[in-house]
Amino acid sequence: MKIAAIKKTDFESLRNLYFTVRRRSFSWLDPSLFQLKDFDSDTKGEIILVAYDNDIPIGFISIWMKDNFIHHLYIDQHHQGKNIGTELLKAAIVQTHLPVTLKCLENNTNAIAFYLKKGFVARERGQSEHGEYILFELSKNIN
């Protein structure tokens, strides 16, 4: 696996990955809320790092640099649990500086467990159009 900045040729694969993983991960939401085109608008203006397996995109992280905010972290379902999310987080931290923050929907219990295991701390709660979220902060490097 390697991690690198997004390439123009990655967009179609990442649109599909983003669409598929969100529909699966956010099973409590109406699937019609998710569209293939969402990737482009939801990551506009962000730095995107991509995880590749044999030059095929298998995950990505996007960062809103101005606020050191991790906006998206998605891994193809067939590659989850293989340390790819951890490596993408490490790569994102190199691009920004600590602390970094992110929001995670309360119903996304697998993601919450992952972030807590990596050392993120819950700082506040809020409401979004998709439900309640937790704002997490990471102030130290991930091992």
Automatic annotation (TrEMBL):
SUPFAM superfamilies attached to this UniProt entry: Acyl-CoA N-acyltransferases (Nat)
GO molecular function terms listed in the Swiss-Prot or TrEMBL record: acyltransferase activity, transferring groups other than amino-acyl groups
Keyword terms, alphabetized: Transferase
UniProt-recorded name of the protein: GCN5 family acetyltransferase
Domain (N-acetyltransferase): residue spans on this chain: 1-143
Record-linked CDD domains: NAT_SF
InterPro entries found in the cross-reference section: Acyl_CoA_acyltransferase, GNAT_dom
